[in-house]
């Protein structure tokens, strides 16, 4: 559907005409390989659940390096332009799927794509996984879709501003990646310990998650704040793009601790099987509050700093709503899991 509707999706963002053709080429190629990302994420979840968190890291490091090499080959040597970047990405993702598949087969002693056997033996597990994961998936999809409308505000500014903000967002994703990974680790930690009836340890999972995520994210945020211009210049030599991107990165850096709270709270509650309520209140903050803020502040102030502020406004609202929700839900959440079997 997204491949067919790619022109409409790009028009929703208000993309500049000068980059529209390249954008639609890249988007369609990337979407053509998006199933590789889905399978890879499922596979790494399986490996982490059986206690192997290193192999996914090694696979990701290898395929990321391979992606860079393929980018240089397809763009620098073959001169395929934007299409070359997209093809390099999906090839690297496809190889990551093959590697993850081989690792799972080696550790479990059987194929992991035996769909009929999986359905016959694991219907209850599949139903439970979908029940917990569906809300998280819908939340992620809706937040991504809402970003199209954020870009419709960004693209009202000159091209240099769009490029600078876009580059800062790329760096932002890099900074928050360890936080998101540790939030998923918190989910695994809590669910494994509740399954083993180590309830006290499971309860402490939130402090482990917050401590680890805050420590790693703080270091990355300080590095980003200190070397913002240098990092932005890796993507563009344009002085105006560097200035805009560095200003946005420095604006966001102090707020990453709020993102830590949001991600870990989500991961902690999912570990207890509570996902729908947290997803809803997170969406209200990340989408509802942010879109209302942009609709109000953009015409009132009309500066690019409104775009900068929209991101932490959404983070803060989501984190606050999640904290309130968890405080009201906590005792019941623990009681539902820890009540003795009849």
Verbal overview:
With 342 residues, this protein is mainly α. It is 85% helix and 0% strand. The longest helix has 37 residues, at 159-195. The termini are far apart.
Identify the notable features of this structure and list them briefly.
342 residues; 14 helices; globular
Layout of SSEs?
Elements: H1 6-12, H2 17-32, H3 34-49, H4 54-77, H5 81-108, H6 115-121, H7 123-154, H8 159-195, H9 199-226, H10 228-233, H11 239-252, H12 256-271, H13 276-301, H14 305-338
Short précis:
This protein is mostly helical. Helices cover 85% and strands 0% of the residues.
Mean pLDDT: 88
Contiguous uncertain segments of 5+ residues: none
Strand tally is 0
In DSSP terms (H or I, runs of 4 or more residues), the helix count works out at: 14
The end-to-end distance, rounded to whole angstroms, is: 48 Å
Shape: globular
Question: Which band does the percent of strand residues land in?
Answer: under 5%
Please state the CA-atom Rg, rounded to the nearest Å: 21 Å
Largest sheet: none
| H and E string | HHHHHHHHHHHHHH
Portion in helices: over 70%
What class, by secondary structure content? mainly alpha
């Amino acid at each position: 559907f997204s491949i067919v509707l790619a022109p409409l999706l790009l028009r929703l963002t208000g993309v500049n005409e000068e980059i529209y053709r390249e954008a639609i080429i890249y988007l369609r190629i990337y979407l053509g390989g998006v199933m590789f990302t889905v399978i890879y994420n499922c596979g790494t979840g399986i490996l982490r659940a059986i206690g192997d968190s290193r192999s996914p890291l090694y696979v990701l490091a290898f395929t990321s390096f391979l992606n860079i090499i393929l980018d240089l080959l397809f763009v620098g040597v073959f001169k395929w332009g934007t299409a070359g970047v997209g093809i390099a990405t999906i090839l690297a993702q496809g190889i990551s799927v093959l590697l993850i598949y081989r690792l799972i087969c080696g550790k479990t002693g059987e194929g992991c794509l035996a769909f009929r056997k999986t359905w016959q033996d694991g219907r209850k597990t599949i139903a439970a996984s979908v029940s917990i994961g569906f809300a998280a998936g819908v939340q992620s999809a809706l937040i991504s879709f809402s970003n199209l409308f954020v870009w419709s505000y960004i693209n009202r500014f000159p091209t240099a501003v769009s490029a600078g903000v876009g580059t800062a967002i790329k760096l932002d994703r890099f900074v928050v990646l360890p936080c998101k990974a540790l939030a998923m680790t918190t989910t695994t930690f809590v669910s494994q310990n509740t399954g083993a009836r180590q309830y006290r340890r499971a309860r402490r999972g939130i402090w482990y998650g917050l401590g680890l995520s805050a420590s790693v994210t703080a270091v990355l945020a300080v590095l980003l704040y200190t070397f913002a211009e240098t990092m932005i210049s890796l993507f563009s030599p344009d002085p105006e793009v560097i200035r805009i991107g560095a200003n946005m990165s420095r604006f966001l850096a102090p707020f990453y601790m709020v993102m830590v709270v949001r991600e870990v709270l989500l991961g902690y509650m999912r570990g207890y099987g509570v996902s729908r309520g947290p997803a809803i209140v997170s969406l209200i903050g990340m989408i509802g509050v942010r879109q209302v803020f942009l609709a109000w502040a953009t015409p009132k102030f009309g500066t690019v700093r409104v775009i900068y502020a929209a991101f932490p406004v959404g983070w803060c609202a989501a984190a606050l709503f999640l904290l309130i929700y968890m405080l009201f839900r906590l005792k019941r959440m623990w009681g539902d899991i820890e009540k003795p079997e009849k």
